[in-house]
Amino acid sequence: MYIDRIYLQNFRNIHRAEINFFPYFNIIEGKNGQGKTNLLESVYLLSTARSFRSRERGDFIRWESEGCELKGIVREGALERELAVSISPGGRRLTVNRNPVRRFSDFAWILQTVVFSPDDLLIVKGSPSLRRRYLDQLCFQLWRGYAGEAQKFNAALRHRNALLKTRGQSPAWREQMRAWTDQLLSYGARVSAYRQRAVERLDRELDRSFRLVADETKRARLVYRCSAAGDTQGGAPAQAPEQAQKNPVEGAHLETPPDDGLTRALREAYAEELSRRADHERLSGSTPVGPHRDDFAMLIDGREAQRFGSQGQQRLFVLSLKLGELSCLGDGNDGGGPPVLLLDDFSSELDAERIERSIEYLLGFGGQVILTTTSIARLPLPPSLRGKRFRVEQGVVEDLGELRACK
Description:
Number of strands: 17
Structural class: alpha+beta
Oligomer: single chain
């Protein structure tokens, strides 16, 4: 699967553009602030209907324009599909093959993508909510059915918290609390089980990509931290897995339920911890335990990268994590091949050796790569590389032709 071409109108600083991508390597060159990242963002929007940079619709619309249009042609073997996103201050409109889609799930991830940007360092350095959101996006791509489980859990959590804030004590109040607690535990245990199984898979790929890209003898790990039982792994709370967020691990887009034994163990652990902290939650008016409080640690040789890793190690860790996603998604993509990899200025803050090793990894990836750089001279590209080169200046995109012709 790859993005064949995109059409943009009034998107960010781009007035009009038509870009014909190469199925494999694509390099977008330009100085900072010219619009390189806007091109990556447009592909990501066509994949997810969301941005990896902004949540404000107005940010997407070119100055003094009423709205913006994005259209992409996606190829998967002989199949061709047209994805389109129209954005105005009042909302957005999504279409597939020019037919409006009513549900987000009918549009998102038709084109699978993995994006790496400088802001992804926040996965390591930022709050637990950012790490949970990162895994949400991964698991939505792995298992579409997870969205329903997550929605039911979030609904139970909202109702339960609203009930806690009333501080009622009547029989009717207690009955409602029991009902919402039961749903919270059931869906929460499933969400957590999905997350743990997904992270076990990502953890295996992470260690491999970290060794190859970083040329390190050190081990990279993810460790899921369940709010009911500390670190967990491989089955029951209190051993040591990782963080996932929304689904099981038997192949992308399958509806495989989480392991019953793990789900029961998690439900029991959450129930026990809620009982232990009953006085606290009545005072705070919020639920202190559940997937919404879980986190995951990122470890290099058993030490937290957040606290002990250098800036370079943290960046390599996140890059390796994203490369691990490629394997996770590609292995179970229903025959659609690997996702499209979007790399925004990935070579910054990496030394020449790490850049070269990353390029070697990407050459063996086999899928479509679209990357940005301030200078193509920073990239040690082999003469045999097949691809295309583009230049962006003040929102104008110039197609410079095949990479081999540009040597």
